[in-house]
Amino acid sequence: MPRTRYEHGTPQAPLAQLPAAALRAVLREGYGMAALRQDLLAGAVVGVVALPLAMALAIAVGVAPQHGLYTAMVGGFVAALLGGSRMQVSGPTAAFIVVLAPVHEQYGLQGLLVSGFLAGLLLIAMGLLRLGSLITYVPHPVTTGFTAGIATVIATLQLKDLLGITWTGNPQHYLERVAAMWQARATFSLAELAVGAVTLAMLIAAPRVVKAVPAPVLVLPLAALAVVLLERTVPGFQVATIGSRFHAEIGGRSYAGIPQLLPSPSWPFTQLSFATLRELLPSALAIAALGAIESLLSAVVADGMAHTKHDPDAELIGIGAANVLAPLFGGIAATGAIARTATNVRSGARSPIAAMTHALVILLALLVLAPLLAYLPMAALAALLLIVAWNMSEVRHFIHVLRVAPRSDVAVLLICFALTVLVDMVVAVGVGIVLAALLFMHRMVEVTNIQLVRGFHPALPRTLPQGVLVYDIDGPLFFGAAQKAMGALGAIAGRAQVVVLRLEGVPVLDATGLVALESAVGRLRSSQCRVIVCGLQEQPAAVLKKSELSRPESTLLFCPDIDSAIAAAEQLVAAASKPAGPSGADSA
Protein backbone atom coordinates (compact mmCIF):
# COMPACT_ATOMS: atom_id res chain seq x y z
CA MET A 1 0.00 0.00 0.00
CA PRO A 2 1.35 3.48 -0.83
CA ARG A 3 2.11 5.61 2.19
CA THR A 4 0.15 8.82 2.64
CA ARG A 5 2.25 11.94 3.20
CA TYR A 6 1.16 14.67 5.59
CA GLU A 7 1.91 18.34 5.17
CA HIS A 8 0.70 20.95 7.65
CA GLY A 9 -1.66 18.39 9.13
CA THR A 10 -3.47 17.71 5.83
CA PRO A 11 -3.30 14.26 4.19
CA GLN A 12 -1.74 14.33 0.75
CA ALA A 13 -2.71 11.69 -1.82
CA PRO A 14 -0.01 9.71 -3.65
CA LEU A 15 0.81 10.94 -7.13
CA ALA A 16 -0.89 7.95 -8.76
CA GLN A 17 -4.21 9.03 -7.21
CA LEU A 18 -4.11 12.64 -8.41
CA PRO A 19 -5.63 12.18 -11.90
CA ALA A 20 -9.45 12.18 -11.66
CA ALA A 21 -9.25 12.83 -7.91
CA ALA A 22 -12.65 14.56 -7.79
CA LEU A 23 -14.43 11.87 -9.80
CA ARG A 24 -12.83 9.13 -7.71
CA ALA A 25 -14.04 10.81 -4.51
CA VAL A 26 -17.61 11.13 -5.83
CA LEU A 27 -17.74 7.48 -6.89
CA ARG A 28 -16.31 6.32 -3.55
CA GLU A 29 -19.03 8.19 -1.68
CA GLY A 30 -21.75 6.63 -3.84
CA TYR A 31 -23.34 8.02 -6.98
CA GLY A 32 -26.96 7.25 -7.84
CA MET A 33 -29.55 8.06 -10.47
CA ALA A 34 -30.81 11.14 -8.61
CA ALA A 35 -27.33 12.69 -8.70
CA LEU A 36 -26.97 11.73 -12.38
CA ARG A 37 -30.23 13.50 -13.27
CA GLN A 38 -29.05 16.62 -11.44
CA ASP A 39 -25.72 16.55 -13.25
CA LEU A 40 -27.30 16.06 -16.66
CA LEU A 41 -29.66 18.98 -16.10
CA ALA A 42 -26.91 21.27 -14.77
CA GLY A 43 -24.59 20.27 -17.63
CA ALA A 44 -27.27 21.07 -20.20
CA VAL A 45 -27.81 24.54 -18.71
CA VAL A 46 -24.08 25.32 -18.58
CA GLY A 47 -23.57 23.98 -22.10
CA VAL A 48 -26.21 26.34 -23.48
CA VAL A 49 -24.63 29.26 -21.58
CA ALA A 50 -21.09 28.34 -22.69
CA LEU A 51 -22.00 27.99 -26.38
CA PRO A 52 -22.07 31.70 -27.32
CA LEU A 53 -19.28 32.54 -24.88
CA ALA A 54 -16.92 29.97 -26.40
CA MET A 55 -17.50 31.40 -29.87
CA ALA A 56 -17.19 35.02 -28.75
CA LEU A 57 -13.96 34.37 -26.86
CA ALA A 58 -12.39 32.60 -29.83
CA ILE A 59 -13.33 35.51 -32.09
CA ALA A 60 -11.82 37.95 -29.58
CA VAL A 61 -8.54 36.01 -29.73
CA GLY A 62 -8.59 36.30 -33.52
CA VAL A 63 -9.49 32.75 -34.58
CA ALA A 64 -12.65 31.28 -36.07
CA PRO A 65 -15.49 30.63 -33.57
CA GLN A 66 -15.37 26.84 -33.94
CA HIS A 67 -11.98 26.79 -32.18
CA GLY A 68 -13.68 28.09 -29.05
CA LEU A 69 -16.24 25.29 -29.31
CA TYR A 70 -13.48 22.70 -29.76
CA THR A 71 -11.82 24.07 -26.62
CA ALA A 72 -14.98 23.78 -24.55
CA MET A 73 -15.72 20.30 -25.91
CA VAL A 74 -12.32 18.64 -25.57
CA GLY A 75 -10.73 20.79 -22.87
CA GLY A 76 -13.89 21.01 -20.79
CA PHE A 77 -14.44 17.23 -20.87
CA VAL A 78 -10.83 16.27 -20.10
CA ALA A 79 -10.41 18.84 -17.31
CA ALA A 80 -13.58 17.61 -15.60
CA LEU A 81 -12.61 13.97 -16.03
CA LEU A 82 -9.05 14.29 -14.68
CA GLY A 83 -9.30 17.35 -12.42
CA GLY A 84 -9.56 17.83 -8.67
CA SER A 85 -12.69 20.01 -8.40
CA ARG A 86 -16.18 18.54 -8.35
CA MET A 87 -17.97 21.58 -9.77
CA GLN A 88 -15.36 23.22 -11.98
CA VAL A 89 -16.30 24.01 -15.58
CA SER A 90 -13.35 24.69 -17.89
CA GLY A 91 -13.04 26.18 -21.35
CA PRO A 92 -11.86 29.34 -23.10
CA THR A 93 -11.98 32.39 -20.83
CA ALA A 94 -11.77 36.14 -21.22
CA ALA A 95 -8.57 36.36 -19.19
CA PHE A 96 -6.67 34.52 -21.92
CA ILE A 97 -7.54 37.04 -24.62
CA VAL A 98 -4.72 39.45 -23.77
CA VAL A 99 -2.19 36.59 -23.85
CA LEU A 100 -3.48 34.62 -26.83
CA ALA A 101 -4.35 37.47 -29.20
CA PRO A 102 -0.71 38.67 -29.59
CA VAL A 103 0.45 35.07 -30.11
CA HIS A 104 -2.09 34.58 -32.90
CA GLU A 105 -1.20 37.90 -34.49
CA GLN A 106 2.49 37.02 -34.60
CA TYR A 107 2.54 33.24 -35.10
CA GLY A 108 -0.90 32.36 -36.47
CA LEU A 109 -3.14 29.48 -35.45
CA GLN A 110 -0.29 26.98 -35.36
CA GLY A 111 1.67 29.08 -32.86
CA LEU A 112 -1.46 29.48 -30.77
CA LEU A 113 -2.04 25.72 -30.62
CA VAL A 114 1.61 24.95 -29.86
CA SER A 115 1.82 27.51 -27.05
CA GLY A 116 -1.30 26.00 -25.47
CA PHE A 117 0.15 22.50 -25.79
CA LEU A 118 3.41 23.55 -24.10
CA ALA A 119 1.44 25.31 -21.36
CA GLY A 120 -0.43 22.06 -20.74
CA LEU A 121 2.84 20.20 -20.21
CA LEU A 122 3.98 22.89 -17.77
CA LEU A 123 0.69 22.67 -15.85
CA ILE A 124 0.99 18.89 -15.54
CA ALA A 125 4.55 19.32 -14.24
CA MET A 126 3.31 21.90 -11.70
CA GLY A 127 0.71 19.43 -10.45
CA LEU A 128 3.20 16.57 -10.19
CA LEU A 129 5.60 18.84 -8.28
CA ARG A 130 2.79 19.69 -5.80
CA LEU A 131 2.81 23.39 -6.63
CA GLY A 132 -0.97 23.79 -6.48
CA SER A 133 -1.01 25.35 -3.02
CA LEU A 134 1.67 27.90 -3.97
CA ILE A 135 -0.70 29.65 -6.37
CA THR A 136 -2.63 30.93 -3.36
CA TYR A 137 0.43 32.99 -2.38
CA VAL A 138 0.01 35.35 -5.35
CA PRO A 139 -0.79 38.67 -3.60
CA HIS A 140 -4.33 40.02 -3.85
CA PRO A 141 -3.30 43.45 -5.25
CA VAL A 142 -1.51 41.63 -8.08
CA THR A 143 -4.53 39.50 -9.07
CA THR A 144 -6.92 42.44 -8.69
CA GLY A 145 -4.69 44.72 -10.77
CA PHE A 146 -4.09 42.39 -13.69
CA THR A 147 -7.70 41.16 -13.70
CA ALA A 148 -9.00 44.73 -13.98
CA GLY A 149 -6.37 45.45 -16.63
CA ILE A 150 -7.43 42.41 -18.66
CA ALA A 151 -11.07 43.51 -18.41
CA THR A 152 -10.13 46.97 -19.68
CA VAL A 153 -8.29 45.54 -22.68
CA ILE A 154 -11.16 43.15 -23.50
CA ALA A 155 -13.76 45.91 -23.31
CA THR A 156 -11.70 48.18 -25.55
CA LEU A 157 -11.20 45.46 -28.15
CA GLN A 158 -14.96 44.87 -28.40
CA LEU A 159 -15.58 48.45 -29.52
CA LYS A 160 -14.34 47.49 -32.99
CA ASP A 161 -17.19 45.03 -33.64
CA LEU A 162 -19.69 46.96 -31.53
CA LEU A 163 -19.22 50.05 -33.71
CA GLY A 164 -18.58 48.20 -36.97
CA ILE A 165 -15.16 49.84 -37.41
CA THR A 166 -12.70 48.39 -39.90
CA TRP A 167 -9.02 49.19 -40.35
CA THR A 168 -6.00 47.87 -42.20
CA GLY A 169 -2.95 46.51 -40.45
CA ASN A 170 -2.70 44.44 -37.28
CA PRO A 171 -1.63 46.54 -34.25
CA GLN A 172 -0.42 44.40 -31.34
CA HIS A 173 -0.39 46.84 -28.42
CA TYR A 174 -3.22 48.56 -26.60
CA LEU A 175 -2.37 52.16 -27.44
CA GLU A 176 -1.73 51.24 -31.07
CA ARG A 177 -5.17 49.57 -31.27
CA VAL A 178 -6.85 52.61 -29.73
CA ALA A 179 -5.03 54.88 -32.20
CA ALA A 180 -6.02 52.66 -35.14
CA MET A 181 -9.62 52.63 -33.97
CA TRP A 182 -9.66 56.42 -33.76
CA GLN A 183 -8.11 56.83 -37.19
CA ALA A 184 -10.71 54.46 -38.66
CA ARG A 185 -13.65 56.17 -36.94
CA ALA A 186 -15.07 57.18 -40.33
CA THR A 187 -15.90 53.50 -41.01
CA PHE A 188 -18.32 53.49 -38.08
CA SER A 189 -21.65 51.72 -38.86
CA LEU A 190 -24.88 52.94 -37.30
CA ALA A 191 -26.54 49.59 -37.96
CA GLU A 192 -23.80 47.71 -36.06
CA LEU A 193 -24.03 50.16 -33.16
CA ALA A 194 -27.83 49.79 -33.03
CA VAL A 195 -27.62 45.98 -32.90
CA GLY A 196 -24.84 46.07 -30.29
CA ALA A 197 -26.48 48.70 -28.10
CA VAL A 198 -29.89 46.98 -28.09
CA THR A 199 -28.26 43.62 -27.35
CA LEU A 200 -26.24 45.16 -24.51
CA ALA A 201 -29.35 46.75 -23.02
CA MET A 202 -31.25 43.48 -23.23
CA LEU A 203 -28.38 41.52 -21.64
CA ILE A 204 -28.44 43.96 -18.72
CA ALA A 205 -32.23 44.01 -18.35
CA ALA A 206 -33.05 40.34 -19.02
CA PRO A 207 -31.80 38.92 -15.66
CA ARG A 208 -34.10 41.34 -13.82
CA VAL A 209 -37.14 40.26 -15.80
CA VAL A 210 -36.57 36.57 -16.66
CA LYS A 211 -34.55 34.82 -13.98
CA ALA A 212 -35.23 31.23 -15.06
CA VAL A 213 -33.29 31.51 -18.33
CA PRO A 214 -29.69 32.80 -18.61
CA ALA A 215 -29.66 36.15 -20.40
CA PRO A 216 -27.37 35.15 -23.34
CA VAL A 217 -29.56 32.12 -24.10
CA LEU A 218 -32.59 34.38 -24.45
CA VAL A 219 -31.09 37.56 -25.93
CA LEU A 220 -28.64 36.32 -28.59
CA PRO A 221 -31.20 34.26 -30.58
CA LEU A 222 -33.54 37.27 -30.49
CA ALA A 223 -30.73 39.48 -31.79
CA ALA A 224 -30.03 37.05 -34.64
CA LEU A 225 -33.73 36.83 -35.53
CA ALA A 226 -34.08 40.62 -35.49
CA VAL A 227 -31.09 41.04 -37.80
CA VAL A 228 -32.47 38.51 -40.28
CA LEU A 229 -35.85 40.30 -40.36
CA LEU A 230 -34.27 43.76 -40.69
CA GLU A 231 -31.96 42.67 -43.51
CA ARG A 232 -34.99 41.37 -45.44
CA THR A 233 -37.31 44.30 -44.77
CA VAL A 234 -35.08 47.38 -44.50
CA PRO A 235 -33.21 48.31 -47.69
CA GLY A 236 -29.47 48.78 -47.10
CA PHE A 237 -29.51 47.31 -43.60
CA GLN A 238 -26.59 44.92 -43.18
CA VAL A 239 -24.42 43.87 -40.28
CA ALA A 240 -21.56 41.39 -39.92
CA THR A 241 -22.47 37.93 -38.66
CA ILE A 242 -20.50 34.77 -37.92
CA GLY A 243 -21.53 33.46 -41.32
CA SER A 244 -20.40 36.56 -43.23
CA ARG A 245 -17.15 37.00 -41.29
CA PHE A 246 -15.85 33.41 -41.17
CA HIS A 247 -15.52 30.74 -43.86
CA ALA A 248 -13.88 27.33 -43.83
CA GLU A 249 -12.75 24.99 -46.62
CA ILE A 250 -12.80 21.35 -45.51
CA GLY A 251 -12.65 18.40 -47.89
CA GLY A 252 -13.34 20.59 -50.88
CA ARG A 253 -16.53 21.96 -49.36
CA SER A 254 -17.02 25.57 -48.25
CA TYR A 255 -18.73 26.33 -44.93
CA ALA A 256 -20.08 29.76 -43.98
CA GLY A 257 -19.55 30.24 -40.28
CA ILE A 258 -18.98 27.05 -38.30
CA PRO A 259 -18.34 23.71 -40.04
CA GLN A 260 -21.00 21.16 -39.10
CA LEU A 261 -18.31 18.55 -38.47
CA LEU A 262 -16.46 16.92 -35.61
CA PRO A 263 -12.95 18.33 -35.09
CA SER A 264 -10.31 16.10 -36.65
CA PRO A 265 -7.08 15.41 -34.74
CA SER A 266 -3.84 16.85 -36.10
CA TRP A 267 -0.27 17.41 -34.86
CA PRO A 268 0.38 21.16 -34.40
CA PHE A 269 4.20 20.92 -34.47
CA THR A 270 4.41 20.24 -38.21
CA GLN A 271 6.99 22.43 -39.98
CA LEU A 272 7.77 24.31 -36.79
CA SER A 273 11.39 25.39 -36.29
CA PHE A 274 13.22 25.16 -32.99
CA ALA A 275 13.71 28.95 -33.05
CA THR A 276 9.95 29.51 -33.24
CA LEU A 277 9.41 26.97 -30.48
CA ARG A 278 11.87 28.88 -28.29
CA GLU A 279 10.06 32.14 -29.05
CA LEU A 280 6.74 30.58 -28.04
CA LEU A 281 8.03 29.36 -24.68
CA PRO A 282 7.49 32.68 -22.79
CA SER A 283 3.90 32.76 -24.04
CA ALA A 284 3.46 29.16 -22.88
CA LEU A 285 4.77 30.13 -19.44
CA ALA A 286 2.29 33.02 -19.30
CA ILE A 287 -0.60 30.75 -20.34
CA ALA A 288 0.38 28.16 -17.74
CA ALA A 289 0.68 30.74 -14.96
CA LEU A 290 -2.60 32.44 -15.81
CA GLY A 291 -4.35 29.11 -16.33
CA ALA A 292 -3.18 27.85 -12.94
CA ILE A 293 -4.21 31.04 -11.12
CA GLU A 294 -7.63 31.34 -12.73
CA SER A 295 -8.44 27.63 -12.51
CA LEU A 296 -7.57 27.39 -8.82
CA LEU A 297 -9.39 30.63 -7.99
CA SER A 298 -12.44 29.27 -9.78
CA ALA A 299 -12.16 26.01 -7.82
CA VAL A 300 -12.06 28.01 -4.57
CA VAL A 301 -15.22 29.85 -5.63
CA ALA A 302 -16.90 26.53 -6.35
CA ASP A 303 -15.86 25.18 -2.94
CA GLY A 304 -17.35 28.23 -1.23
CA MET A 305 -20.66 27.87 -3.07
CA ALA A 306 -21.02 24.08 -2.86
CA HIS A 307 -19.23 23.47 0.49
CA THR A 308 -16.77 21.06 -1.15
CA LYS A 309 -12.97 20.83 -1.14
CA HIS A 310 -10.82 20.57 -4.25
CA ASP A 311 -7.36 19.06 -4.69
CA PRO A 312 -5.21 21.84 -6.23
CA ASP A 313 -2.52 19.50 -7.55
CA ALA A 314 -5.07 17.22 -9.22
CA GLU A 315 -6.77 20.29 -10.69
CA LEU A 316 -3.48 21.44 -12.24
CA ILE A 317 -2.98 17.99 -13.76
CA GLY A 318 -6.54 18.01 -15.12
CA ILE A 319 -6.33 21.46 -16.69
CA GLY A 320 -2.83 20.60 -17.97
CA ALA A 321 -4.11 17.47 -19.70
CA ALA A 322 -6.96 19.52 -21.17
CA ASN A 323 -4.47 21.96 -22.67
CA VAL A 324 -2.34 19.15 -24.07
CA LEU A 325 -5.27 17.41 -25.80
CA ALA A 326 -7.40 20.40 -26.88
CA PRO A 327 -4.78 21.79 -29.35
CA LEU A 328 -4.64 18.39 -31.04
CA PHE A 329 -8.28 18.98 -32.04
CA GLY A 330 -7.95 22.68 -32.86
CA GLY A 331 -8.76 24.00 -29.38
CA ILE A 332 -7.10 27.05 -27.86
CA ALA A 333 -5.97 27.39 -24.23
CA ALA A 334 -8.50 26.46 -21.53
CA THR A 335 -8.83 27.09 -17.82
CA GLY A 336 -11.49 27.12 -15.12
CA ALA A 337 -14.29 29.59 -15.88
CA ILE A 338 -15.69 31.24 -12.76
CA ALA A 339 -19.03 32.36 -14.25
CA ARG A 340 -19.75 28.98 -15.85
CA THR A 341 -18.66 27.18 -12.69
CA ALA A 342 -21.03 29.33 -10.61
CA THR A 343 -23.85 28.57 -13.06
CA ASN A 344 -23.03 24.88 -12.71
CA VAL A 345 -23.29 25.02 -8.93
CA ARG A 346 -26.50 27.06 -8.97
CA SER A 347 -28.02 24.59 -11.45
CA GLY A 348 -27.62 21.76 -8.95
CA ALA A 349 -24.47 19.98 -10.15
CA ARG A 350 -23.26 17.14 -7.94
CA SER A 351 -20.05 15.93 -9.60
CA PRO A 352 -17.61 16.41 -12.51
CA ILE A 353 -20.13 14.56 -14.69
CA ALA A 354 -22.06 17.85 -14.98
CA ALA A 355 -19.06 19.60 -16.59
CA MET A 356 -18.49 16.59 -18.83
CA THR A 357 -22.15 16.82 -19.87
CA HIS A 358 -21.68 20.52 -20.69
CA ALA A 359 -18.93 19.51 -23.16
CA LEU A 360 -21.21 16.93 -24.79
CA VAL A 361 -24.02 19.50 -25.10
CA ILE A 362 -21.66 21.81 -27.00
CA LEU A 363 -20.67 18.89 -29.24
CA LEU A 364 -24.35 18.19 -29.96
CA ALA A 365 -24.98 21.88 -30.70
CA LEU A 366 -22.05 21.90 -33.13
CA LEU A 367 -23.51 18.97 -35.07
CA VAL A 368 -27.12 20.18 -35.02
CA LEU A 369 -27.13 23.98 -34.76
CA ALA A 370 -24.03 25.03 -36.74
CA PRO A 371 -26.02 26.49 -39.68
CA LEU A 372 -28.16 28.56 -37.30
CA LEU A 373 -25.15 29.83 -35.35
CA ALA A 374 -23.94 31.53 -38.52
CA TYR A 375 -26.72 34.12 -38.11
CA LEU A 376 -25.38 35.46 -34.79
CA PRO A 377 -24.35 39.14 -35.25
CA MET A 378 -20.77 40.07 -34.41
CA ALA A 379 -22.01 43.21 -32.64
CA ALA A 380 -24.21 41.07 -30.37
CA LEU A 381 -21.24 38.86 -29.42
CA ALA A 382 -19.21 42.01 -28.74
CA ALA A 383 -21.98 43.19 -26.40
CA LEU A 384 -21.84 39.84 -24.60
CA LEU A 385 -18.08 40.21 -24.07
CA LEU A 386 -18.60 43.74 -22.74
CA ILE A 387 -20.79 42.21 -20.04
CA VAL A 388 -18.12 39.60 -19.36
CA ALA A 389 -15.44 42.31 -19.10
CA TRP A 390 -17.57 44.39 -16.73
CA ASN A 391 -18.20 41.42 -14.43
CA MET A 392 -14.54 40.46 -14.60
CA SER A 393 -13.34 43.95 -13.67
CA GLU A 394 -15.20 44.01 -10.34
CA VAL A 395 -15.15 47.81 -10.42
CA ARG A 396 -16.67 48.20 -6.96
CA HIS A 397 -14.09 45.91 -5.42
CA PHE A 398 -11.28 47.67 -7.32
CA ILE A 399 -12.41 51.06 -5.97
CA HIS A 400 -12.84 49.60 -2.47
CA VAL A 401 -9.24 48.35 -2.47
CA LEU A 402 -8.04 51.77 -3.63
CA ARG A 403 -9.87 53.37 -0.71
CA VAL A 404 -8.99 51.05 2.18
CA ALA A 405 -5.71 49.28 1.31
CA PRO A 406 -2.30 50.57 2.47
CA ARG A 407 -0.60 52.91 0.02
CA SER A 408 2.04 50.32 -0.86
CA ASP A 409 -0.63 47.77 -1.85
CA VAL A 410 -2.49 50.42 -3.83
CA ALA A 411 0.75 51.19 -5.69
CA VAL A 412 1.22 47.50 -6.56
CA LEU A 413 -2.39 47.28 -7.76
CA LEU A 414 -2.12 50.35 -9.99
CA ILE A 415 1.25 49.29 -11.41
CA CYS A 416 -0.12 45.83 -12.28
CA PHE A 417 -3.19 47.42 -13.86
CA ALA A 418 -1.15 49.88 -15.94
CA LEU A 419 1.40 47.29 -17.07
CA THR A 420 -1.36 44.84 -18.07
CA VAL A 421 -3.03 47.48 -20.23
CA LEU A 422 0.04 49.22 -21.66
CA VAL A 423 2.60 46.39 -21.85
CA ASP A 424 1.33 42.85 -21.27
CA MET A 425 0.08 40.59 -18.52
CA VAL A 426 3.33 38.61 -18.19
CA VAL A 427 5.31 41.73 -17.31
CA ALA A 428 2.50 42.94 -15.02
CA VAL A 429 2.36 39.73 -12.97
CA GLY A 430 6.16 39.42 -12.78
CA VAL A 431 6.68 43.01 -11.67
CA GLY A 432 3.70 42.84 -9.31
CA ILE A 433 4.96 39.72 -7.55
CA VAL A 434 8.47 41.16 -7.19
CA LEU A 435 7.09 44.42 -5.76
CA ALA A 436 4.78 42.54 -3.40
CA ALA A 437 7.71 40.37 -2.25
CA LEU A 438 9.84 43.45 -1.56
CA LEU A 439 6.99 45.01 0.41
CA PHE A 440 6.58 41.78 2.35
CA MET A 441 10.27 41.78 3.26
CA HIS A 442 10.04 45.40 4.36
CA ARG A 443 7.04 44.60 6.56
CA MET A 444 8.79 41.59 8.07
CA VAL A 445 11.73 43.82 8.99
CA GLU A 446 9.29 46.18 10.70
CA VAL A 447 7.61 43.42 12.72
CA THR A 448 10.94 41.92 13.89
CA ASN A 449 11.45 43.48 17.33
CA ILE A 450 14.83 43.68 19.06
CA GLN A 451 15.37 44.49 22.73
CA LEU A 452 18.61 44.80 24.69
CA VAL A 453 18.08 44.14 28.42
CA ARG A 454 20.44 44.62 31.34
CA GLY A 455 19.86 44.58 35.09
CA PHE A 456 16.20 44.22 36.08
CA HIS A 457 13.37 43.78 33.56
CA PRO A 458 9.81 42.54 34.21
CA ALA A 459 10.05 40.06 31.30
CA LEU A 460 12.99 38.28 32.99
CA PRO A 461 12.68 35.75 35.82
CA ARG A 462 15.49 37.40 37.81
CA THR A 463 17.80 40.41 37.84
CA LEU A 464 20.78 40.06 35.55
CA PRO A 465 24.21 40.12 37.21
CA GLN A 466 26.79 42.74 36.31
CA GLY A 467 28.38 42.03 32.93
CA VAL A 468 25.43 40.04 31.52
CA LEU A 469 23.15 41.32 28.72
CA VAL A 470 20.07 39.68 27.22
CA TYR A 471 19.52 40.28 23.51
CA ASP A 472 15.89 39.42 22.77
CA ILE A 473 14.77 38.91 19.13
CA ASP A 474 11.06 38.54 18.37
CA GLY A 475 10.21 37.78 14.73
CA PRO A 476 11.56 35.84 11.75
CA LEU A 477 15.32 36.03 11.29
CA PHE A 478 15.49 35.78 7.51
CA PHE A 479 17.24 37.69 4.74
CA GLY A 480 14.94 40.66 5.10
CA ALA A 481 15.48 41.22 8.83
CA ALA A 482 18.85 39.56 9.52
CA GLN A 483 21.00 42.66 9.03
CA LYS A 484 18.82 44.76 11.32
CA ALA A 485 18.86 42.15 14.08
CA MET A 486 22.45 40.96 13.94
CA GLY A 487 24.00 44.37 13.23
CA ALA A 488 22.98 45.63 16.64
CA LEU A 489 24.22 42.41 18.28
CA GLY A 490 27.74 42.84 16.90
CA ALA A 491 27.80 46.46 18.09
CA ILE A 492 27.71 45.46 21.77
CA ALA A 493 31.01 43.59 21.57
CA GLY A 494 33.27 44.66 24.44
CA ARG A 495 30.39 45.98 26.60
CA ALA A 496 29.60 42.69 28.38
CA GLN A 497 31.20 39.48 29.59
CA VAL A 498 28.22 37.29 28.62
CA VAL A 499 25.44 37.87 26.08
CA VAL A 500 22.31 35.75 26.29
CA LEU A 501 20.75 35.50 22.83
CA ARG A 502 17.04 34.89 23.45
CA LEU A 503 15.38 33.36 20.35
CA GLU A 504 12.06 32.11 21.75
CA GLY A 505 10.18 34.45 19.40
CA VAL A 506 12.11 33.48 16.25
CA PRO A 507 10.07 30.96 14.22
CA VAL A 508 12.30 30.96 11.12
CA LEU A 509 16.06 31.23 10.53
CA ASP A 510 17.30 31.15 6.92
CA ALA A 511 20.81 31.02 5.43
CA THR A 512 21.22 34.80 5.47
CA GLY A 513 20.17 34.95 9.10
CA LEU A 514 22.57 32.14 9.94
CA VAL A 515 25.52 33.88 8.26
CA ALA A 516 24.68 37.14 10.05
CA LEU A 517 24.43 35.28 13.37
CA GLU A 518 27.77 33.53 12.85
CA SER A 519 29.41 36.86 12.01
CA ALA A 520 27.98 38.58 15.10
CA VAL A 521 28.97 35.70 17.39
CA GLY A 522 32.48 35.81 15.91
CA ARG A 523 32.84 39.51 16.76
CA LEU A 524 31.61 38.89 20.31
CA ARG A 525 34.07 36.02 20.81
CA SER A 526 36.95 38.14 19.52
CA SER A 527 36.20 40.61 22.33
CA GLN A 528 36.30 37.78 24.95
CA CYS A 529 32.50 37.77 25.33
CA ARG A 530 30.75 34.43 25.86
CA VAL A 531 27.44 33.79 24.05
CA ILE A 532 24.50 31.71 25.30
CA VAL A 533 21.59 30.84 22.98
CA CYS A 534 18.26 29.95 24.59
CA GLY A 535 14.68 29.15 23.62
CA LEU A 536 15.34 27.77 20.13
CA GLN A 537 12.26 26.72 18.17
CA GLU A 538 12.31 23.61 15.98
CA GLN A 539 13.29 25.13 12.63
CA PRO A 540 16.08 27.44 13.89
CA ALA A 541 17.41 24.59 16.04
CA ALA A 542 17.62 22.32 12.97
CA VAL A 543 19.50 25.02 11.02
CA LEU A 544 21.98 25.72 13.83
CA LYS A 545 22.59 22.00 14.35
CA LYS A 546 24.20 21.83 10.90
CA SER A 547 26.24 25.02 11.32
CA GLU A 548 29.70 25.84 12.64
CA LEU A 549 28.11 27.25 15.80
CA SER A 550 27.12 23.77 17.02
CA ARG A 551 30.67 22.44 17.04
CA PRO A 552 32.36 22.08 20.45
CA GLU A 553 35.19 24.45 19.53
CA SER A 554 32.69 27.27 18.94
CA THR A 555 32.29 27.65 22.77
CA LEU A 556 28.66 28.63 22.16
CA LEU A 557 26.33 27.46 24.94
CA PHE A 558 22.73 26.32 24.36
CA CYS A 559 20.03 26.43 27.02
CA PRO A 560 16.37 25.41 26.77
CA ASP A 561 14.93 28.58 28.34
CA ILE A 562 15.81 32.02 29.68
CA ASP A 563 15.91 30.92 33.33
CA SER A 564 18.61 28.28 32.74
CA ALA A 565 20.46 30.67 30.41
CA ILE A 566 20.71 33.37 33.13
CA ALA A 567 21.89 30.76 35.63
CA ALA A 568 24.62 29.65 33.19
CA ALA A 569 25.61 33.28 32.63
CA GLU A 570 25.96 33.83 36.40
CA GLN A 571 28.31 30.82 36.61
CA LEU A 572 30.43 32.13 33.73
CA VAL A 573 30.71 35.59 35.34
CA ALA A 574 31.55 34.07 38.71
CA ALA A 575 34.22 31.82 37.20
CA ALA A 576 35.78 34.75 35.34
CA SER A 577 35.90 36.88 38.54
CA LYS A 578 37.84 34.30 40.64
CA PRO A 579 41.49 35.31 41.11
CA ALA A 580 44.02 32.91 39.59
CA GLY A 581 46.13 30.94 42.10
CA PRO A 582 49.94 31.56 42.54
CA SER A 583 52.23 29.87 40.09
CA GLY A 584 53.15 26.43 41.22
CA ALA A 585 50.51 26.34 44.00
CA ASP A 586 49.66 22.80 43.03
CA SER A 587 53.23 21.61 43.33
CA ALA A 588 54.09 19.28 46.20
Structure description:
With 588 residues, the protein is of the alpha/beta class. The chain has 2 domains: 395 residues, no CATH class; 128 residues, Transcription Regulator spoIIAA (2-Layer Sandwich). The protein has 21 helices and 11 strands. The strands form 4 sheets. Strands 7-8-9-10-11 form a 5-stranded mixed β-sheet, with helices on both faces. It has a two-stranded antiparallel ribbon with strand order 1-2. Helix 2 crosses helix 13, helix 2 crosses helix 14 and helix 10 crosses helix 11. The N and C termini lie far apart (74 Å).
Q: How would you name the oligomeric state of the polypeptide chains in this document? A: single chain
Taking all Cα atoms into account, the compactness measure Rg is: 32 Å
Order of strands, main sheet, comes to 7-8-9-10-11
Q: Count the strands? A: 11
What fraction strand?
Answer: 5-15%
Residues in helices, as a percent range: 55-70%
The overall number of domains is 2
Mean pLDDT: 87
Question: pLDDT below 50 for ≥5 consecutive residues: which ranges?
Answer: 1-10, 583-588
Q: Structural class of the secondary elements? A: alpha/beta
Overall geometry comes to: elongated
Put simply, the count of helices is: 21
What is the CA-CA span between the terminal residues? 74 Å
Question: For the report, how would you describe the main beta sheet?
Answer: 5 strands, mixed
Secondary structure topology:
Layout: E1 5-7, E2 10-12, H1 21-29, H2 33-61, H3 65-82, E3 90-91, H4 97-128, H5 140-163, H6 174-183, H7 190-209, H8 215-233, H9 242-245, E4 247-250, E5 253-256, H10 274-306, H11 312-325, E6 335-336, H12 338-346, H13 352-373, H14 378-393, H15 395-404, H16 407-422, H17 425-447, E7 449-454, E8 468-474, H18 482-490, E9 498-505, H19 511-526, E10 530-534, H20 538-545, E11 557-559, H21 562-577
Parallel strand pairs: 8-9, 9-10, 10-11
Antiparallel strand pairs: 1-2, 3-6, 4-5, 7-8
